[in-house]
Amino acid sequence: MTPLKKILIIIVVVFLGLVTIGIVLLFRQRGGSNYIEPAKVSDINMLWPKVKADQSEVYYFKNVENPGFYKMALADKKEEKISSTLDTPDKVLWSPNARRALIFITYDKQNMEKYGSPFSDLQAADQTPMKWVYDFESKKLSRLDSRIIDIAWMTDDKIIYQLQKDNQASINISDYDGQNWEKVVDSPAVYIDQIISFANDKLYFLATPGEGIRNFYVLDIKSKDMSEKLKDVGGSAIVNNDLVLIEISQDNVTQLYWADLKQPDLNNTKIIATVQKAVWLNQDKFLVAIGGGRTDKLIIEDIVTGETRTLSYSEKEFSLDTQNLVIIDKTVYFTSNNVLYKLDLSKKL
Amino acid sequence: MGKKEILLIVAIVLTVLAGIAAIIYIGIMGFFTGNLFESGTQSGAGGRGSCSILYPASAGSYDQIGAAINAWIHQNGPGSPLEGKGFLIAKSGAESGVNPALIAGIARKESSFGKHIPDDTYNPFGRTASDSQPGVTVGSHKWYKFNSWDEAIAEEGPYIKRTYIDEGRTTIGAMLAKYCPESECDTDTYITQMTDWMNEITRLAGGALGEECNEAVLAGADGGPTICSVGYTGAPASCGWIEIPDKAEDYQKYGGGSDWGKPSLVNMVMGVAKSWKEAGNTKIQVGDLSNQCSQAPGHASHDRGTDVDIDLPNGMMVDGAKYNPQLAIALAKKFISCGATDIGYEDPQVIQEVNNWATQNNLSGRVRAWTGHKDHFHVRSEKR
Question: If you count residue pairs, one on A and one on B, with CB atoms under 8 Å apart, how many are there?
Answer without folding.
Answer: 104
